[in-house]
Request: fold
Amino acid sequence: MDKISTKNNLVSLIYNDLSLREELALRNELNTNDELAYELEMLRDAKNALPKVLFNPSESVLDRIMAYSRQSAHQPHF
Reply:
């Protein structure tokens, strides 16, 4: 695995966003690569340190999103 895609895969693993095959391959790599396992631990710690926020958009924002969706649904897509 190359370094950038491996780091992306670690983030995807943390957020449960890997296919079963990708997860198994990454977990196998983690069992044999202490540096990678340490990187995963650091990323998990960073995720846990993020503030727990919930976003509740206002009713007007939701109305604008829905209006845009209705409008764009009638336009041809190329």
Summary: The helical segments are 3-14, 20-32, 34-49, 59-73. The chain is about 70% helix and 0% strand. The radius of gyration is 19 Å.
